[in-house]
């Protein structure tokens, strides 16, 4: 890892493994989360990201390796002894307690003075703009409101690290996008390290300072959203983050004379008439449009090219709304991209 | 339209809401009103009837002599209170066994162990009621299993006494408490346990503040069984109670000699259960469900 900060990491995992019976859920994982950053763990289901989160929280024991919180080894500590709090996927609000009692729970079990509890609960609810809901029960709130209560309940304890386990997964798309913005604002306000588990690549790209991409219990790549999107280090990362054209080494040999796999994003691929000659700095493939996919803001063209190469090109629908797409199915075309826009996959 | 011709009964039922309800409810209503409630009401009505002191003949009347006896006779009063005490103890014991067992079964045990325990709990239900009391009798009799086993250590069993009645009734009614409690614990999302620990609660605090409140409906449902079945029992007292008398014993003794007193006593457990239910309602435990 290219990480050389002098201060200890907010969370550091050293050679952490987790087995469930014969299944290896997490394999020899090294990971450092910097203090104050919004760190996402992104991957498909079963990739080990939630298990890692649960090990940081203390719900799962590690099979081997160690976990450090701000330099202190907490590998064997119980969840109630760790200065981290969790926002659960289904919120896990206590159904028999009012909203105020839910938010107060962590302070109540710590025997905080009543007056202080009342003040801090009121502040926390106010911060979430839910000050009027204190006397209600969780089932009387909407999904988005419950989500914010779960957040308030965890943040009221002022943890060093907040763990979020797919917290937006149960919300519909519009609410989810709104909550993404709020989450980011809250994180900036409170300045707490957020570790965010998600399988939604767009969400991870939108929210994170850095992303760790998980696959089969291993981290494939750690980097800023731009790094993992523009310079995927593995074929898996290229495919998992957005749509990507992955060109295998043997085809690359024919196209650019180098036997190395590379990727090029559909939005960087242009469609040109078949008889147009590409410029010197460009790579091109001849082919036939086999499919058009209209996605609203853009249209995606799937082109079956020479050498059995399939290329996806995306074109912004910046023409007049009534105009149809400039190309149609069966057209003979040339797909073109600037050679330097292709990223080599090591 | 054509269906009227092909399926006249279905068509008629479809058109008439009353017929539909009637065909659904006739049988259960005959059962419920005819046998269940009327027969109980007839027995309870006997409490107000008159017994001829010389011939012991019972004639319909409306008087409160039986209830006066019930309240003035010291032995009757103490038996009522003793029965109440036994029923409450049985209920508390059942709950005290059922809650930890339920937590273990629902959240910790392997599927195999869970199945084994579920069978172990329900197995006694398959054996007859009398068989189980006799099993306790064999265990606690003078030369029984308990004494011969623990006698080596110098411990002698309770013999046939009130504690043995409590143990026997707990043995009899435990499944009725254990099953609803186990089911309720299974329904508590595992995330709530995690969330509680995450927010700083240790195991016991989680049981007290999260598990117990969520269990209240199941505990109340289970306790209605353990409590009312214990109040009404008399065979346990008869067979393993030694000289222990319960309400059931008094009813059994009087049913031929003095039916009004027996009937008046039938009111006592009903009154206790009603008071108990009103008490549970006052706690508000059921309102948030």
UniProtKB/TrEMBL annotation, chain A:
<dbReference type="InterPro" id="IPR003439">
    <property type="entry name" value="ABC_transporter-like_ATP-bd"/>
</dbReference>
<dbReference type="GO" id="GO:0016887">
    <property type="term" value="F:ATP hydrolysis activity"/>
</dbReference>
<dbReference type="InterPro" id="IPR003593">
    <property type="entry name" value="AAA+_ATPase"/>
</dbReference>
<dbReference type="Pfam" id="PF08402">
    <property type="entry name" value="TOBE_2"/>
</dbReference>
<feature type="domain" description="ABC transporter">
    <location>
        <begin position="11"/>
        <end position="241"/>
    </location>
</feature>
<dbReference type="InterPro" id="IPR027417">
    <property type="entry name" value="P-loop_NTPase"/>
</dbReference>
<dbReference type="Pfam" id="PF00005">
    <property type="entry name" value="ABC_tran"/>
</dbReference>
<dbReference type="InterPro" id="IPR008995">
    <property type="entry name" value="Mo/tungstate-bd_C_term_dom"/>
</dbReference>
<keyword id="KW-0067">ATP-binding</keyword>
<keyword id="KW-0813">Transport</keyword>
<dbReference type="InterPro" id="IPR013611">
    <property type="entry name" value="Transp-assoc_OB_typ2"/>
</dbReference>
<dbReference type="InterPro" id="IPR050093">
    <property type="entry name" value="ABC_SmlMolc_Importer"/>
</dbReference>
<protein>
    <submittedName>
        <fullName>Putative spermidine/putrescine transport system ATP-binding protein</fullName>
    </submittedName>
</protein>
<dbReference type="InterPro" id="IPR017871">
    <property type="entry name" value="ABC_transporter-like_CS"/>
</dbReference>
<dbReference type="GO" id="GO:0043190">
    <property type="term" value="C:ATP-binding cassette (ABC) transporter complex"/>
</dbReference>
<dbReference type="GO" id="GO:0005524">
    <property type="term" value="F:ATP binding"/>
</dbReference>
<dbReference type="GO" id="GO:0022857">
    <property type="term" value="F:transmembrane transporter activity"/>
</dbReference>
<keyword id="KW-0547">Nucleotide-binding</keyword>
UniProtKB/TrEMBL annotation, chain B:
<feature type="transmembrane region" description="Helical">
    <location>
        <begin position="160"/>
        <end position="179"/>
    </location>
</feature>
<keyword id="KW-0813">Transport</keyword>
<dbReference type="InterPro" id="IPR035906">
    <property type="entry name" value="MetI-like_sf"/>
</dbReference>
<keyword id="KW-1003">Cell membrane</keyword>
<keyword id="KW-1133">Transmembrane helix</keyword>
<feature type="transmembrane region" description="Helical">
    <location>
        <begin position="214"/>
        <end position="237"/>
    </location>
</feature>
<feature type="transmembrane region" description="Helical">
    <location>
        <begin position="21"/>
        <end position="49"/>
    </location>
</feature>
<keyword id="KW-0472">Membrane</keyword>
<protein>
    <submittedName>
        <fullName>Putative spermidine/putrescine transport system permease protein</fullName>
    </submittedName>
</protein>
<feature type="domain" description="ABC transmembrane type-1">
    <location>
        <begin position="80"/>
        <end position="278"/>
    </location>
</feature>
<comment type="similarity">
    <text>Belongs to the binding-protein-dependent transport system permease family. CysTW subfamily.</text>
</comment>
<dbReference type="GO" id="GO:0005886">
    <property type="term" value="C:plasma membrane"/>
</dbReference>
<keyword id="KW-0812">Transmembrane</keyword>
<dbReference type="InterPro" id="IPR000515">
    <property type="entry name" value="MetI-like"/>
</dbReference>
<dbReference type="Pfam" id="PF00528">
    <property type="entry name" value="BPD_transp_1"/>
</dbReference>
<dbReference type="GO" id="GO:0055085">
    <property type="term" value="P:transmembrane transport"/>
</dbReference>
<feature type="transmembrane region" description="Helical">
    <location>
        <begin position="257"/>
        <end position="279"/>
    </location>
</feature>
<feature type="transmembrane region" description="Helical">
    <location>
        <begin position="84"/>
        <end position="104"/>
    </location>
</feature>
<feature type="transmembrane region" description="Helical">
    <location>
        <begin position="116"/>
        <end position="140"/>
    </location>
</feature>
């Amino acid at each position: 890892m290219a990480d050389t900060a002098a201060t200890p990491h907010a969370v550091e995992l050293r050679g952490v493994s987790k087995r469930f019976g014969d299944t290896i859920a997490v394999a020899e994982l090294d990971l450092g989360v910097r203090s104050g950053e919004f760190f996402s763990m992104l991957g498909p289901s079963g990739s080990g990201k939630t298990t890692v989160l649960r090990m940081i929280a203390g719900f799962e024991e590690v099979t081997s390796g160690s976990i450090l919180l701000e330099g202190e080894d907490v590998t064997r500590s119980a969840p109630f002894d760790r200065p981290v709090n969790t926002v659960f996927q289904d919120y896990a609000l206590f159904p028999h307690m009012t909203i105020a009692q839910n938010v107060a729970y962590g302070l109540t079990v710590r025997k905080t003075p009543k007056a202080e509890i009342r003040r801090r609960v009121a502040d926390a609810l106010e911060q979430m703009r839910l000050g009027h809901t204190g006397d209600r029960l969780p089932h009387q709130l909407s999904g988005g409101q419950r989500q914010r209560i779960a957040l308030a309940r965890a943040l009221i304890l002022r943890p060093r690290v907040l763990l979020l386990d797919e917290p937006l997964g149960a919300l519909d798309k519009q609410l989810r996008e709104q909550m993404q913005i709020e989450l980011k604002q809250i994180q900036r306000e409170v300045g707490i390290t957020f570790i965010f588990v998600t399988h939604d690549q767009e969400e991870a790209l939108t929210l994170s300072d850095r992303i760790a991409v998980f696959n089969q219990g291993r981290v494939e790549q750690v980097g800023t959203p731009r790094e993992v999107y523009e310079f995927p280090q593995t074929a898996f990362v290229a495919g998992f983050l957005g749509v990507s054209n992955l060109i295998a080494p043997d085809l690359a040999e024919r196209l650019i004379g180098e036997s190395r796999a590379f990727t090029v994003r559909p939005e960087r691929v242009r469609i040109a008439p078949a008889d147009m000659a590409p410029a010197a700095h460009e790579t091109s493939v001849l082919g036939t449009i086999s499919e058009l996919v209209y996605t609203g803001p853009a249209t995606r063209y799937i082109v079956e090219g020479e050498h059995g190469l399939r290329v996806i090109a995306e074109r912004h629908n910046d023409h007049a709304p009534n105009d149809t797409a400039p190309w149609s199915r069966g057209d003979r075309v040339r797909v073109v991209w600037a050679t330097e826009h292709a990223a080599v996959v090591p | 339209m054509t269906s009227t011709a092909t399926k006249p009964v279905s068509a008629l039922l479809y058109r008439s809401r009353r017929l539909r309800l009637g065909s659904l409810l006739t049988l259960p209503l005959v059962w419920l009103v005819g046998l269940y409630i009327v027969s109980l009401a007839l027995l309870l009505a006997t409490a107000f009837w008159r017994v001829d002191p010389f011939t012991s003949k019972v004639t319909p009347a409306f008087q409160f002599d039986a209830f006066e006896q019930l309240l003035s006779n010291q032995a009757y009063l103490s038996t009522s209170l003793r029965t109440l005490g036994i029923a409450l103890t049985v209920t508390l014991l059942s709950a005290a066994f059922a809650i930890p067992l339920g937590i273990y079964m629902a959240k910790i045990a392997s599927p195999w162990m869970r199945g084994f325990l579920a069978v172990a709990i329900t197995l006694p239900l398959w054996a007859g009621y009398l068989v189980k009391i006799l099993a306790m009798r064999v265990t606690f009799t003078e030369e029984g299993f308990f004494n011969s086993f623990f006698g080596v250590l110098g411990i002698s069993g309770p013999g046939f006494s009130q504690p043995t009645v409590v143990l026997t009734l707990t043995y009899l009614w435990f499944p009725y408490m254990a099953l609803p409690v186990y089911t309720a614990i299974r329904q508590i999302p595992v995330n709530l346990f995690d969330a509680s620990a995450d927010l700083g609660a240790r195991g016991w605090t989680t049981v007290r503040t999260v598990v117990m409140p969520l269990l209240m409906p199941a505990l109340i449902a289970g306790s209605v069984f353990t409590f009312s079945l214990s109040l009404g029992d008399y065979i346990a007292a008869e067979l393993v109670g030694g000289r222990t008398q319960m309400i059931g014993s008094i009813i059994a003794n009087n049913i031929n000699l003095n039916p009004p007193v027996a009937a008046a006593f039938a009111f006592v457990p009903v009154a206790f259960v009603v008071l108990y239910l009103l008490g549970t309602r006052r706690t508000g435990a059921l309102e948030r469900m």
